[in-house]
## 1
Amino acid sequence: MERRIGIMGGTFDPIHIGHLITAEMVRSAAELDEVLFVPSARPPHKDGTCAASPEDRLAMTARAVSENPSFSVSDIELRRDGPSYTVDTIAVLRAQLGDAVLFFITGADAMNDLYRWHEPQRLLRSCQFIVATRQGAALDERIIMEKFTPTERSHIQAVQTPHLEISSTAIRARIRAGLSIRHLVPRAVEEYIEERGLYRAHDEEL
């Protein structure tokens, strides 16, 4: 039986409970065998900078997923030079994972903007897309219909997830203000941030 593997990318600066809840709900709803978290090096749609180093973001992600046997982490994008194009990441993972069926997990806002990504049509044909939708963030069916063919659209499925007011930007701001982030991130991530003194000097708006 083919393995079904979800791919969840992001800066994870830092990874937080919202990421983990979304990943677990999608894993359960789509009957995935595994969710692979892939910290990005230089997201092409952002300014190319992160508040924490790639090594720190990878370490925090690894700590965050360690208690879930269905979660794992890959440094594939951190080892590659240049912008982190999702289509390239999926191509490499497909070569590594053989016959596994790959599902790229993203949010509705990102999906609505997918046509602006690097080679979006090839990306949609190369894997399945699972869109985490929530109240106030839904797929724009008009954009999807206009920009993609029926075959490409058949690779898109939506999964309803909870609306959580948690963001990495807000977590970094709380740290700078000396406020608690308990329960916003896994305890192991909170401890790592404290040990490394992360996010105290500055913050990039990502």
Note: The chain has one domain: 4-166.
## 2
Amino acid sequence: MDDLRTDVPHPARVYDYLLGGKTNYAADRAAAEAGMAANPDSLVPPRTNRAFLRRVVTYLAQEAGIRQFLDIGTGIPTEPNVHQVAQAAAPDARVVYVDNDPIVLAHARALLTSSAEGRTAYVSADLRDPEQILTSPQVRDVLDMERPVALLLIAILHFVGDADDPYGITRRLIDALPSGSYVALSHLTGDFVPEKWAGVEAVYRKQGVTMQVRPKAAIARFLDGLDLVEPGLDVITRWRPEPADIAGGASDAAVSVYGAVARKP
């Protein structure tokens, strides 16, 4: 197992804290609390993002007919997990989870409770090393890369700075997918309250965590060459909302996350 650094905040554990989870440490909680001081709405994006993920996976399994999912940046297991949502619609769905936090690896058994008809697997790897992900035994064993796959990049790309070439990384992953595959992403933005998110970025940077919120046009670049599913790239609360999601009533500024699903021609 990778070296477990509980003295340094990790995005997966900070996210877990913001969701009200218990798999986090003092450094993660301090980073989250400092982020909330810079932007008091910091609790809103993780919670609306979780609902977005559920709607996206349901759409992909029910309407798009996808049976294979590659979820990169999985985070601490939080029910319902991707395989639970996908297999509720399609019991034979297969899911490979990827994360680089050894704490997530330690809890991965919660991600491996597949239906009898489907399969799940976990890869300990970093998004910034797409070759390690694509050539992993788990991906080769569980996913048939000749058949459509849904690549899930949910709330992860804003932790990859421009210096690490996030567009090149994303393109390498998309290029490995066959025609008919889908890409789903969500990404923090400073479009609505730039000064608050600049403050959050600074807090995370001080804690040793890269965070780079991006404007809508920069987020759209990740999906160049793909066919956007309606309603396109939008604030995630407006992506095929359900009545319970609408009832929450969070403003665009509070959410500050764009999301989209796109199909590879």
Note: Strands lie at 68-72, 94-99, 119-124, 150-154, 182-188, 227-228, 234-235, 257-263.
